[in-house]
């Protein structure tokens, strides 16, 4: 029986440091606080979905260094299944330094890549992929993602392929993967670069439908401006962001949005309600430091939605 969400992506370790100012040149400043926390778009989405009740599994390659060990320990603490993460002796995990401005949650990120190589597509297990309802990816380990899509197709395509197009991450080599995606949610920056548009217009949606020809759900997210979701051939609707008090950090809010959205779809919840839940989860996460600073459970999300106010709706 198919259940849960499988992720293919890169797990990182983040050093999150709260500062008064973001650097524009050489400087020294005492920080407010600092913490270690696991990061990466796909694993963070899985963590959000797990807290809401989904069964989740992560596929990646990590090393045997201290960073990799911390990453796996935290993933397991969140309830994510890690038996499909390969450990490469002598390799080290990615490390990201995230400076977060305390006044508004704005960020500056610098990172060191992992020394591991990409996942060998032939190492993927057909049963692991096809036993999940949703396979979520963002194009990292691209050849493995494409192989996973082939495996899904060869087994009648019952597993849905989900794609996260993050800001600053569009590249042409993603196009073959994009053509196989069932659920595509991308940042506005990704949408505009992929379609060669300047602003969001009806033309943007037409081009996105051409780039994601299989997708029955296409979404565009834009932070506090909310998100736009197109389901099947219906006109895109706008889901406002929710007001959240004491914004601390916007790191990972889009990833949490993805995780909550996929949990809702996997659970048979309507697309409109899924967008509302996702928007609320993203807003809640912004009230704590780190991409996984506040991952609400189902009760916390429901309580928030019962009282929260939407930011003024926008017209597309």
Write the layout of secondary structure elements.
Layout: E1 5-8, E2 12-19, E3 33-39, H1 41-51, E4 56-63, H2 66-77, E5 85-88, E6 94-101, E7 107-112, H3 126-130, E8 134-137, H4 142-154, E9 160-165, H5 175-178, E10 183-187, H6 188-195, H7 202-211, E11 217-221, E12 227-231, E13 237-239, H8 253-266, H9 271-285, H10 298-307
Parallel strand pairs: 1-4, 1-8, 2-6, 4-5, 8-9, 9-10, 10-11
Antiparallel strand pairs: 2-3, 6-7, 11-12, 12-13
SSE order in H/E notation?
A: EEEHEHEEEHEHEHEHHEEEHHH
Largest sheet: 9 strands, mixed
Task: State the CATH architecture of the domain at 41-60 and 119-307.
Answer: 3-Layer(aba) Sandwich
Shape: globular
Helical content (DSSP H or I, runs of 4+)? 25-40%
Helix count equals 10
| Poorly predicted ranges | none
CATH class of the domain at 41-60 and 119-307: Alpha Beta
User: What fold name goes in the CATH topology slot of the domain at 41-60 and 119-307?
Assistant: UDP-N-acetylmuramoyl-L-alanine:D-glutamate ligase
Give the full name of the CATH homologous superfamily of the domain at 41-60 and 119-307.
Ribokinase
Strand content: 15-25%
Mean pLDDT: 93
Strand order of the largest sheet: 5-4-1-8-9-10-11-12-13
